């Protein structure tokens, strides 16, 4: 252990302790650094835990926050603003999880499966922190994304000295954060391997759950089976990962598990949430790749005092992560320091509405009463409230042919648009898209994006929907405008058959001003760069379709292709 004082970029003197040894119940030792005021007295502590490396988090003392598309943006600097934490009267404790950074032990599988429970380690870590002379016995947690998910796993173990948590941008239902509508998303690769602006996991001793569970011969058979997916076989990185998984252990596990089930459900934070009885503040911005779904499910499952705060559409939050700190300290001042600042007198749910940029509040999600209403795909690429009256012989299907991205850079896109709205129109909630489609292969991707387009052509993405055609089955949770897919098996499509595909549109909140139009775009791959993607990290895209596919979208009287959207029953207010 080393102790010294340093100055943050703003000039604050900070006492630093490095490489503190934290014993776990199984004999493994984790390591941690602490940052506190130079005055030597006990304070409450905020704990940050991840496998990204505690030294990386220390850059928050010297690097100004970076926003995309800055090349200095590093998605793994997520433990929070150290100088701000110290200035607010807390000790900032940043630890390395087992098998990473300077900590001992072995981590098996992603945080939700295999080996020693990371929640168990978090329990031991928090209780050790509470017993130290520099801590007054009161502990909270801090950090976005992986750090946020660790807070939920920790709280589910009920460490006695953990008083409250504040989770920003966490990811919970791990299948839904890695396979959107059954379509593989590459962003988790970046966080694990260190790609596209991410440092990645500080690997020292992490192992694949699949390699632990199966013999080499069994695993080879499973890998060969996975490579029969033409989308996987057409993507060089995935072929490489499947053939040479060493040092890509976590990503290998994700690629190998393309269906939902036990592997993803083990230690699912949403399943564990009913064990949590301490106060929980959940914050997430709309449109993050993790989607709102997991956050909303987690919020509903919590039993103790809770808040839900849904922010504006990204691109992405800063790194080092500094946003949401005002809300976080107000939460912790109330629950940890006992300051009656009125935070619990306010409505539990707050939602930022794109378009009007107002914040609406309520007692639940959605915060306003909504009515699901359809907008039908019509001829001449129109969206309208009334269905198409003509039969298929007159309302011929729209269509597109998409060649694989191995042979073209062009992504074909179909679009439909409303007329300009005559009055302000607000939508808050999840949605659905019913597409009657015919394809000439046994699978494809359906990628739907909804835009708010202004009279001058500027546009804002408001939500997305994804569905791998072979994952089209719905489960019994589905209701009008709120569909769910089990993703537990893939059912090939009969080429040439017209099928109804129901896409889930991720929850959103947007208000269309007079003169604006709602535009929906459909493709089977994502544009390589556009108004939205250009502001995201390079790896924030989905696995393209690896074969040529012709798509026909029917929207006639017998095939009412449509959006089903959550219109609030009151007009939006300024």
UniProtKB/TrEMBL annotation:
Q: What is its EC number?
A: 3.1.1.84
Q: Which residues form the Xaa-Pro dipeptidyl-peptidase C-terminal domain?
A: 329-564
Spans through the membrane: none
- UniProt keyword annotation of Hydrolase present: yes
* Gene3D superfamilies membership: alpha-amino acid ester hydrolase ( Helical cap domain), alpha/beta hydrolase, Galactose-binding domain-like
Which InterPro entries does the annotation name? AB_hydrolase_fold, CocE/Ser_esterase, Galactose-bd-like_sf, Xaa-Pro-like_dom, Xaa-Pro_dipept_C, Xaa-Pro_dipeptidyl-ppase/CocE
Top-level lineage group:
Bacteria
Q: Tell me yes or no: is Hydrolase among this UniProt entry's keywords.
A: yes
**Protein name, as recorded:** Cocaine esterase
Which molecular function terms from Gene Ontology are attached? dipeptidyl-peptidase activity
* Keywords in alphabetical order: Hydrolase
